[in-house]
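If your schedule permits, I should be very grateful for your opinion on a structural question. I have a record of one protein: its chain in single-letter code and its fold written as discrete structure tokens. Would you kindly read the sequence against the tokens and tell me how you understand this chain to fold? Thank you for your consideration; the sequence and its tokens are set out here.


***
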Amino acid sequence: MRGLVLRLALLALAGGVLSACGSTRGGGPVMAGSGYEPGGRFLSCVPYARQRSGIDLRGDGWQWWEAAAGRYDRSQRPRPGAVLVFRQTGRLRDGHVAVVSRVLGPREIRVDHANWATGGLRGRVAQDQVVVDVSERNDWSLVRVWYPPIAAVGNTAFPAYGFIHPTTRWSGAGDPSPDV
């Protein structure tokens, strides 16, 4: 029985982690060595990704994919500076966006993103965090993300649209380069 209570408590904690992207609640002190920037200001993922990538889109994180159509290049291939767009789910009601800082291989990248954690780290910027592609087709449509409380990649697989690249597209008629 005690094991079940502990599991339920951990699930409740994990659920709060990922619904916070668009939240406006503040956080507490930052733990040393956590990969999080210190600072007292709350920041959600969208304004952080906009400022960091130069991609000028609005709306919740999940809305960026469609908003980018015809304005920015989109693909299933990560590149530094691109924004990974997470789909809206029950646990990510606002979706999420994260900026690729490094590509380590065909199935592993590092991202910088804001407001991914809970508790004292909620609303903070996390730097160089691991994201792993766990999709069957190696197309970044399903990812697992570094989870600081366990110091490992989390067990939850999150659906993603793909990557928006900070290259502005010409919106004129006859544009020969479709989204990839």
Remarks:
- The longest helix spans residues 2-18.
- The longest strand covers residues 158-168.
- The mean pLDDT is 79.
- The radius of gyration is 16 Å.
